Amino acid sequence: MKLRNKVIFITDADSFSGKALVNRLSGEGAHFILNSESNGSLLEAELVKARTAGSEIFVVQRNLCRSNEVAEVLDQANLTLGKVDVLIHNNDLLKPALAETCEENIFLEIINANAKSAFICTQTVGRQMIGNQNGKIIYISSIHAEKPTGTTFAYSASKGAIKMLSKEAALELGRHGVQVNTIELGPMKENPDRFISGLSALYDSYERKIPSDQPGSYEDLAHLVLYLVSDEARYINGTDIRLDGGFLLHYMDHKMKRPL
């Protein structure tokens, strides 16, 4: 087992990606701190499977934009599981938010949920990892840290902020044996309609824009995360790994404004 007795903190465990991560990593001997908006009710099958595999699990429902709440989670989990070895920041709030019409409160909600929570978790967990002189941080991000969505600029802005946070953290925490990397996801078959837009045709017939014509799944993500958090990836730090099957290599078909 590659992760025997490793303590892994996963944010937004209720999501497709969170469930896939719990399923895959529990089979490698990991224990978990899971932040769940449903307080575990949407994770019942995954929790049963993980506990059957021997995982100890601490489920919480906290506001990750508050450093005191994150610190409290770490203190409580430390009593039963131990200190965090791996942080997987998995927050991925998406709402329609065009630059010319987005309300300020929607912009801040997206930025806080995705980017501010990443900063707070990195800072709080990072202090613990510095004490251990060891640790791994992975941000589950998006190709829209680089490419406009055509439907929510605030989402892209939040993912762009995480992209640079990861670079800064890789430099600072890397001096203390902590590896920090980002996975930028493309379209996944579990939710193919996330970025449907009246402005952009990027996702129209998106399968044909993937060279293999085979969309990815969150199981592919879980396999990549397992590699990155294992000892085999000891020399990978400060990288952005694009997990999109080559989708972003396709140029953007823009729905041009027609003349009157």
What does this structure look like?
With 260 residues, the chain is of the alpha/beta class. The protein has a single domain, classed as 3-Layer(aba) Sandwich (Rossmann fold). It contains 6 helices and 7 strands. The protein has helices at 16-26, 44-52, 67-80, 104-132, 153-174, 218-229; strands at 7-10, 31-35, 57-60, 86-89, 135-142, 178-185, 240-243. Strands 3-2-1-4-5-6-7 form a 7-stranded parallel beta sheet, sandwiched between helices. α1 (16-26) crosses α6, α3 runs parallel beside α4 and α4 packs parallel to α5. The longest helix is centred in the middle third of the chain and has 29 residues, at 104-132. The mean pLDDT is 94. Keywords: Oxidoreductase. This is Gluconate 5-dehydrogenase. Belongs to the short-chain dehydrogenases/reductases (SDR) family. InterPro entries: NAD(P)-bd_dom_sf, Sc_DH/Rdtase_CS, SDR_fam. Pfam families: adh_short_C2 (PF13561).
